[in-house]
Amino acid sequence: MGNSLSTENILNRDEELKVKYLAQTDFFADFTPEQLREIAPEFQWQTYTQGTEILKQGQKVPYFYVVAEGRLVSMLEKEKVEALQLAVFEAGSAFGEIALLTGQPAASTFRCIEDCRLLVVDSMHFALLLLRWPNLNQKLIEKLSGRLRMANDFLFEAKYKEYLRSAMQLSQYQDWFYGVWGGKGITMSINSKIEEISKKPENLLIIGENGTGRQMLAWFIHKRLFGEKSPFVTIKGGLFEQQWGHSISSLLTMIEGGTLIIKEINLLPPEAQRDLAKQLKEQAPKCLLLGTVYSEAERKSLTAELLDCFPQKYLIKPLRERKRDINAIAQAVLEKLAAKHNRKVPRLDHESTRLLLSHNYRQENMTELIQIIERAFALTKGDVISIEHIFFGPTVRKTGKTINLLAWPPLKKLLQKGLFLSLIQGITAVLFILLISLLLGGSDLPLTLTILPFVWGLWWPALVILSPLVGRIWCTVCPFSSIMNFFQKYLHWDRPVPAFLKKYDYLLISFFFLLIFWVEIILGMRQDPFRTGLLLLTLLAGALIFGLIFTRHTWCKNLCPLGGLVGTASIGSVLEVRADPNICLNKCTTLDCYVGTAETAGCPMFQHLPYLDNNLDCKMCFNCVRNCPNDSVQLNLRFPAQEVWHLVRINQGFAIFIGVSLAMLLPVIYFESVRSVWPENSWLLYFSLAYWACALIAAILTWFLVKPYKTKAANSRIKLMFALIPLVLAGHVMYQLNFLPGLDRLTAGLLLESASGQISTWYLPLTQIAQILALLIGLLLTSFAVIMVRHTSKKKV
Ligand code: SF4
Ligand code: SF4
Ligand code: SF4
Questions:
Q1: Same domain, 285 and 338
Q2: Ligand 1 atom 6, closest CA
Q3: For residue 444, is pLDDT > 80?
Q4: Is-contact 25 86, C-beta < 8 A?
Q5: What are residue 545's phi and psi, to 5 degrees?
Q6: pLDDT tens across 378-410, in order?
Q7: 530 partner at 20 to 30 Å CA-CA among 4, 7, 248, 738?
Q8: Cβ atoms within 10 A of the Cβ of 409, count?
């Protein structure tokens, strides 16, 4: 154990050292420490003593090298002539990239002039790095064009042009585009533009927002005019001057017989625009120039000289202004994906189609839609794409400081192995079955009557008190879920969740929660072992029936009343399970957290981790920790309640659950205080009427207040409702404290002795003190959350 720990420490230190040296290198200057930590394992150490030749001129170059320590020189060797020293490489320098890119032998010899330590990555992993990290590719192009600028010798210039051309081939797009535009109207219009340009090639300015398909249009025009193999070079307007300001003519020559596309061409400074226009006029290049701008206003902001160079323009409308195209695009993308992966074309069900149509795609237009469809295709195994496969909007943003508890290796191992959790789940399941048998069987009445107050007096309060602190930790060990899981292994119809369940889950959960509470009170379950056993058995039966028929843990997500309570309570908890979206989006190809692996099922709550940004629907089962192949999942310790004011997406309907859970407390607390005074029958009648009336009024009021239309956006009204959670929980704690075993027998008091020796006393039952405390804490936290919600909403305005 000690040995493995120290090996781990050494490995960690080694990784950190690699990160430190990579960060000093110009190539990786834009990378965040997290990204460097990901890249670091690809690099290996190599050490060389002074005088050693690392590479010999003419030799095949096996690696990309980063100098970590020491110095070396590159030398040009010629027969019978003394070697010419070209450059000195110190810590932070890198070399070998060009040879790896072109497959050519080393152009010079590299010799250590001090003892050197290098980080190296082989050609295959270097190519993978370039593909995975587009900014690395961009750096390479920047570096090559920089060298081209400095090259003053004809041969060197020619060589760099050749290198650069090879580098640019990396950004070719033949596999990237679907060639899908939407319905008939837009497809015909685009095709006729392509036709027009192919007959009369003229520079074209494409106007459209990000993701509208400007680059795709450019690619199809290019393909039609020059074919796939000819150069198709994309340069960002903002970087054009820095990369090509002095070598526009070289660039235009290189792209001869191909297409140059300058994205956001309006970002070129006016002087550079005039320069480019001049070169285009003087040189009359044999390449096509395509520029893109965001809007007509940006087109008009171009200098007159550059505008003159674009005799043609084409406007692509944003997707939100042509929503009729959404279905056609989605369908076409699904068909292409299905053909590529040799699968049946999945169908979008009614709800998911509605959801797609309701979204505005302001971030990335068609690209955003395509990414949503690609993700849904990867997430669904069956023939139907439904609402839980549709993830859109921004991925999780980091809000506030967190500490990842999984950085502590023993805990990570414990959760990844899962044996320990399975053991605890097994034990709670067995104890639970014993408990039900005892309660229903009634064979040992004294024992049953001893256990009963603990079931009611500890279990309920524990749920209400623990969830806001540590989240849905109850669900981690919940016997309903463990027993359901066990039987699912042997019998599972795996049916999709019915649409009405997904749509009205919050109403059903609220209703079942009210029902359990009401039944518990009017049937006096706290004193009745048999009825308590029956209630637990009914809940278990519900979990089992839904678990065996429907997919994943439909019961937990869409029906469980306890889940509703602990889920809402856990919104403010100090623990959260989250993924690092940078890793998910840049590295993940399997989406195992959702899909699952052979050993462990995917997320039972239908969560795709890069989009998981609240605790409501995470039952802390840690399946994702076990499944994620990229170490992206974190178990974070965070500031309590901050999720309330940082909410971005949430099942809006749970505002109704909060409303009714608060309103039901009025009759529950009031009628409890008069139960012993009223005749039982009248009490039951009036209590029931008041209980359901309060719940109904609260539900209607909240409904009108938040209007839960099944979008997931958390607006400030929703956040204000969620800010009430501490108060709701305080109310429930106050009620539950009445039943905490033994508490009613404790009293706290003050005893004061006056100067005359007279003694005065003040006593308060401990239950009351605890209730006042709970109320104060609830009020305080709710007020704080309301202030923070108001504050953050104002900041956004
Ligand atoms: S949601 Fe309900 S059934 Fe599921 S784990 Fe939580 S308490 Fe148990
Ligand atoms: S959490 Fe892991 S499995 Fe899920 S998307 Fe991220 S990297 Fe992939
Ligand atoms: S798999 Fe992960 S995200 Fe899903 S419920 Fe379990 S812990 Fe939460």
A1: no
A2: 475
A3: no
A4: no
A5: -60, -50
A6: 999 889 998 889 998 778 877 778 999 999 999
A7: 738
A8: 13
Does residue 592 line the site of ligand 2, with CB under 6 A?
yes
Residue that finishes a domain, picked among 263, 285, 317: 317
Give the residue whose CA is nearest to atom 2 of ligand 2. 628
Site residues for ligand 1, CB cut-off 6 Å: 474-475, 478, 480-481, 543, 555-556, 560, 562-563, 619
* 121 and 11 within one domain: yes
- Which of the listed residues 591, 610, 638 is the one where a domain comes to its end? 638
C-alpha 243 to ligand 1 mean position (Å): 58
pLDDT at res. 152: 47
Residue bearing the CA closest to ligand 3, atom 3: 618
Q: Are residues 106 and 6 in the same domain?
A: yes
State whether 308 and 332 are in the same domain.
no
- From the number of C-beta atoms within 10 Å of its C-beta (0-12, 13-18, 19+), residue 346 rates as buried
Asked if the model's pLDDT at residue 155 lies above 50, the reply is: no
Domain limits for position 113? 2-126
**Helices H, strands E: what count in the chain?**
37, 20
Token pair of 94 as six digits: 């890198």
How far, in whole angstroms, is CA 316 from its chain's centroid?
30
Q: What is the CATH number of the domain that holds 104?
A: 2.60.120.10
Q: Which candidate, 645, 613, 595, 655, places its Cα nearest to that of 393?
A: 613
Which tens digits make up the pLDDT trace of 42-80?
899 999 999 999 999 888 889 999 999 999 998 877 776
Question: Considering the domain boundaries, does residue 606 fall inside one?
Answer: yes
Amino acid occupying residue 771: Q
Among 216, 221, 212, 223, CA closest to 192 = 221
Instruction: Specify whether 294 is located in the same domain as 188.
Output: yes
Atom 6 (ligand 2): residue with closest C-alpha?
584
